TrEMBL record:
It is found in: Cell membrane; Cytoplasm. InterPro entries: AAA+_ATPase, P-loop_NTPase, Signal_recog_particl_SRP54_hlx, SR_rcpt_FtsY, SRP/SRP_N, SRP54_GTPase_dom, SRP54_N_sf. Its main location: membrane. This is Signal recognition particle receptor FtsY. Residues 277-290 form the SRP54-type proteins GTP-binding domain.
């Protein structure tokens, strides 16, 4: 199954590869020497691949240092060096999002339309398949249709859901879900939340209230907050992450819709500029198409490794 996911990842990143590594390959063929002009062209390609200005400058600086240190003169060695530089940037130490020794409460945040509810459905399915007892809380009571959408994913993944009516207090839904989780000996509770980033104050108050309920009702639980971002929005996703990190502490990113975008390079920018680890990536519509992020697999797919 994992090799199948790598193929999907390669296919999903094909547009990014076309606008990134394929263009770099073309540039390298036209240069006989490694000089400032070559670095400038690579820099331009990185920026247009939605890696972002600051991260691009750091990549180029690291690339120059590596090439100088290793005494590389042949332009054909530039791309393997670039691959290593990007891989080293992404290989950050990160703890597991799920604890085997504690109850897990995972808040899923993000603006509307990025795939929050779908991500909860797919993650619930993933962990249920791994033998975990999973429960969903439909605490996005603001968006029309959000509860019904999560209900559909509940049925599809075979995972129970705790819900109230539209307009109910989200913290009350989470409270009910925590009580249900206790009585059913649930190991992982996923909580959907509203995505009203345009109204920061309300969203901040709502998330603070939910967190107070969790802290009071589930002392000692492993509580994490994951932000869902749509990779097709490129650098706008980085801005959303910055805004959400001002509202609440973030433990990781779920990056959706990597299939069919030329902006897959945004992963590098998110992880480097925000220092928030990418935890999961989505490369398709299927229930198994959201998997844990593996930096080496991502870079291999980006550079077209077979």
């Amino acid at each position: 199954m994992f090799s199948g996911f790598f193929e999907k990842l390669k296919n999903g990143l094909s547009k990014t590869k076309n606008s990134f590594t394929d263009k770099i390959s073309e540039v390298l063929k036209l240069h006989l020497v490694i000089d400032d002009e070559l670095y400038d062209e690579i820099e331009e390609i990185l920026i247009t691949a939605d890696i972002g200005m600051n991260t691009t400058i750091e990549i180029i600086d690291n690339l120059k240092a590596k090439i100088k240190k290793e005494g590389i003169k042949d332009t054909s060695m530039v791309q393997p060096c670039l691959k290593q530089v990007i891989e080293e940037m992404l290989l950050v130490p990160k703890d597991s999002i799920i604890s085997d020794s504690q109850k897990n409460i995972i808040l899923i945040v993000g603006v509307n339309g990025v795939g929050k509810t779908t991500s909860i459905g797919k993650l619930s399915h993933k962990y249920k398949e791994e033998g975990k007892k999973v429960l969903m809380a439909a605490a996005d009571t603001f968006r029309a249709g959000a509860i019904e959408q999560l209900d559909v994913w509940s049925k599809r993944s075979g995972v129970d859901i705790v819900k109230q009516q539209e307009g109910a207090d989200p913290a009350a839904v989470v409270f009910d879900a925590l009580q249900a989780a206790k009585s059913r000996n649930t190991e992982i509770l996923f909580c959907d939340t509203a995505g009203r980033l345009h109204n920061k104050k309300n969203l901040m108050d709502e998330l603070a209230k939910i967190n107070r309920v969790i802290d009071r009702e589930s002392v000692g639980a492993n509580k994490k907050t994951l932000l869902v971002l749509d990779s097709t929005t490129g650098q706008n996703a980085v801005m959303q992450a910055k805004q959400f990190s001002e509202i609440c502490p973030l433990d990781g990113i779920i990056l959706t819709k990597l299939d069919g975008t030329s902006k897959g390079g945004v992963i590098i920018s998110i992880q480097k500029e925000l220092n928030i680890p990418v935890r999961f990536i989505g490369v398709g519509e299927g229930i198994d198409d959201l998997q844990e992020f593996d930096a080496k697999l991502y870079v291999d797919a980006l550079f077209g490794v077979k």
